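for the record, two folds in this file. i put them one after another cuz i was lazy. first one right below, seq on top, structure tokens after. the second one comes after a little note so u can tell where it starts
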Amino acid sequence: MAFDGITTAAIRHELDACLTGGGISRIVQSEKDELLLTIKNNKVTYRLLMSASPSLPLIYLVPENRQAPLTAPNFCMLLRKHLQGGQILRITQPSLERVLCFEISHRNELGDICLKKLIIEIMGKHSNIIVTDERDVILDSIKRIPSSVSSVREVLPGRPYFIPGADLKKNPLEADAKSFIATIRESSYNIVKAIYMCYTGIAPIVAEEFVYEAGIEPRKGPADLNEGEIARLAEVFVRHMEDVARGEFAPNIIYRDGEPKEFGVFPLTIFGGNVENVASVSEMLRKFYSDREASTRIRQKSADLRHLVSTALDRTNKKFLIQEKQMADTEKKDKYRIYGELLNTYGYEAKEGDKELRAVNYYTGEPITIPLDPTLTPAMNAQKYFERYNKLKRTADALGTQIEETNDDREQLESCLMAIDLAESEQDLAEIRRELADYGFAQRKSSQKGRSREAKQKPLAYLSSDGYTMYVGRNNYQNEEVTFKIGNGNDWWFHAKGMPGSHVIIKGNGKGELPDRAYEEAAALAAWYSSGRKAPKVEIDYTQRKNLHKKNGGKPGFVTYHTNYSMMAVPDIAGLKRIE
């Protein structure tokens, strides 16, 4: 179920019960399009999250605080001036729009009571958070929209506030069975589309649910419905709208294959799967959106870093291919050496002006034809071939080292790319950026200087079913720490075979041989935290920590080993407990 007008009505009902009459004690703009308001009401502290993110706009109560930036953005400073310390008088929703309006009273610099409105519009890429005065004149917004961006409505200080397109659809809360039937009969769309195109605040999936509950084929048009069908649909529609008007909601989450697939503020019978009833709308939205919101934020913040690593990797791959081609060209060096040796042996047979010499290759016993420069003596031709041999040999020796270094760079960049996929916070991204800067793949930002300790994150830790602690590195620096600082000689080390992945150490704690289940769970971690996460099974190498070696000057998190076992593991860690 989308965050439509019905979900907005449900969250308005919950916020009205919790926040109306409360005072705003703190305002934080933790992201460029996100606010967190701390509100105290009846000796209870609430935290209200508002996001105008184009990919995930939302509003609900959250339990945790958000970190305030060192310098508050201008919009946040304006809100603190006009709203902090104010009291929430009422929370309204015009029609069934995806809009909530908080009317807030506060005292200005002269001590006079003033009224301000904080409005959040949850409208996809057009979402916004706007503050107005009592005359609905815009004071500012979290996203300013000039006429060059939108010809429908400017959102700028001094402009009047209005909801665009509010008069294009009807208010479903004002519909009765008779008016609903008359409205739907006039539509030329199929019955599902007719509902959400005629009435405001209704998502397509909700319209499908209404049609499903009425037992109607969704592809039918309104003109194809008989009197009984249209009457049943009208009864379903009006009943649900009456529940919305009374504030009767039943928040729930629908799970399929263990994953949250949908949510609803009333039962969605159109979906199969496991249904979990949730105590509040905020809890439902938090459960459904929290992981998605975090991953969306990290994906947005990591876009530049991902582009940087991908560009460096493409450049390194091209360099590697060129070096391999150059190395292939040096393979003819031994031919030149043999030419020189045979000319020193059989050169006396060549006559002045000959362009070739036929001889027997005493290495293979086969006949061979040696090209000659007719202007040079056989000895001079031999010297020329030896010079070519020595030049190609020096090139091959140099290329061998360069190819090894380039391949190390490739593996490091591929590992960094995977670490970006595993990143859960800005600190994780900061560690990856620091590694890229340390090894010359990126310039160090001035804001990063002297802050490497601040950005350092601890490796992940999990508890096995048998009580063993397992550590997982999320990037190359953490892999180094897991393997060579946390891991001891007899601890077991796991890594996905032949692909970028995290180092996993399971601590034996002196308990002797580990149970089979501990090996399987550690291998599952290594599979999950690897580039093979989406594969049905991943081959895992495992060995004791004492069998690992790191070459001098090697890249962080890269090891060699020659004694190991292998096993296949399913990348599934649903049953493992993460230690915070």
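(here's the note) second protein begins now
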Amino acid sequence: MASLTKYPEPLVFGLDIGTRSIVGTVGYREGKQFNIVAQSVKFHDSRVMLDGQIHDINKVGEEIVYVKENLEQQLQGRKLREVCIAAAGRVLKTAVGKGYYEFSENTVVNREYIHSLESVGVEQAHENMMKENDTDIKFFCVGYTVIKYYLNGYEISNLEGHKAHNIGADVLATFLPEEVVDGLYAAVAAADLTISNMTLEPIAAIQVAIPENYRLLNIALIDVGAGTSDICITKDGSIIGYGMLPKAGDKITENLIQEYLVDFATAEKIKMIGPNRKTFTYKDIMGISHKITPKEVYDKVESIVSEIAKDTADKIIELNGGKPVSAAFVVGGGGKIPLYTARLAEYLDLPLERVALRGEEVLGFVNIFVEGVKKDPLLVTPIGICLNFYEQKNNFIFVSVNGDRIKLYNNDKLTVFDAALGYGLSSEDLFPKRGNDLHYTLNHKQKFIRGAAGEAAMIKLNDKEVGMNHMIEASDKIEINASTKGEDAKAVLGEVVDLSSVITFEINNVLLSCPRYASVNGRLESEFYELNEGDQIELLNYYTLSQLMQFMDIETPHEVFVNGARALADTKIYENFKVAWIDREEIYKAEKFVVEETEKEDKENSSGNISKLNAVQEKAAAKEEKDSSLPKPNESVTMHVIVNGTPITLDGKGEYVFVDVFDKYDFDLKTVGGMDLVQKVDGMDVQHFSPLHEGAVVEIYWKD
């Protein structure tokens, strides 16, 4: 072998700590090729690991030392100090979180915004995962994949550089319990090694088995180890699901132990009988020798292989949204068991050729410079662990947040935001919070007023003020004062509707301008009314008859006509409508009120001032006093007039006005005969209170 000094840096050490063995691989990347320069395998002497979980940390540590020293020997004494590892999926938890961020104005999306968005998605995924797993166990995020990005609500492949009002992301995050991570760290530390990078076994395997250009397809990858079958699903260029099944090669071995009454090691050898071998001789625990054929072994394990394949297929379909995938790739030693791929194809309802054991054909970019080592499905995950080093350098670091020591999984792009989430602050504590919006309807259309923006969180990193997306390193000291919430939105009626105009009506042939009002929840309110959540506002361009009478401070006469038609209390009176009635006392008060209003100098601006109603009501008492002081006739006289050709006699008063003729002359005011009521004396148009004289000729009729 050539001198090691010729190898370029870094020289990557990957360690696959499996249920049945520990595989150590050392190599380096050269262009698109990965060159393996050392390889070592150590099978566990006892069941120190079960289903991918370390049970005996010290024993596993000793075996790691053995692998490390063997590799160092192959490397001509070169010392290995850092290692990349992968965690098994036995205790893997996954969840999808939705990140969402809304800008106050159209904004160009940069990498910082995208990272913050993804972090919010990871935070929500963690919350969703904890809700589904009601436990006090602390979980760490050890990787995430963005399934979809959204720009203004529409799906998009890349947000960077686009202008947006809002952005979103669906994030698939993976989590491991703290004790699993701590167990791996402890075993590696026992071998005097430092973890430079940690990933998940399915993530490591997919880097080798399913290239990115294949991930547009709906494919399942199954890494069948000894203790677990780790599953990964791809679709539309993304990883859409991770899963784990605690059934793999060991289940078959345990079945053979019972069938042939042998120890675990012998059962492993029986399991691995090649189909081309004629017979295999073994001794049972009683010391009796037996010969068996491969077919006999396959017949014994067929039921358990079918069970594992069926459960794996069910899990794949579950992770894929209830549908089978288009194809499945199998890696790992457990997948080499005869019948496995055939049964998996059967349960996935796929042609046999679409379920394949991946090995040499996906390792075309790998050069192996180690004698006796061949390309094999067993190498897919160990090589993937090494390759993951180049994708992201990560481990666990410690930082201080508000005086507390926080442990973070370092993906080589940690920010203050990540530390804040690790400390327990939510995104609501970190980003400015708007006060509550105020929602209302205006003329039946939904409207709202935004609450005020709060102040952003105040952050200091090592006593220097920084932003939320500032990168952090081990031992950093971070101080965070949570963001504040802005004031809730508020407004008065005059700020959302224009109450400056007036409405003019013709009241008994006299024009009257009235203030325009708004109705809130069915009640008239002034411009100073403070809006409440859910208020229903209507800007009125009419008065009802009862509102007009209330404004004029008179009782509604018995017979009132609007544009010549009899009106009721809720009849709507719009701009320039004509209102008329025959009621001497009320007409007198109404006309007196209109004259007073029209003759006022410097008329009050009635823009939206509903208090006018109250002012008019207050004047009512004064008017009543004035009315009581009006001169009353002190003697009665008799007057003769002709109404529509009929002579009538008026009596009982000292003087008479036009409306007095209705006391003696039968004119039907209840039936409207036209648009206007014509009133004439001696051929001249008169008003209701025009005076009459002896012998006056009166005309009363409806005009079309």
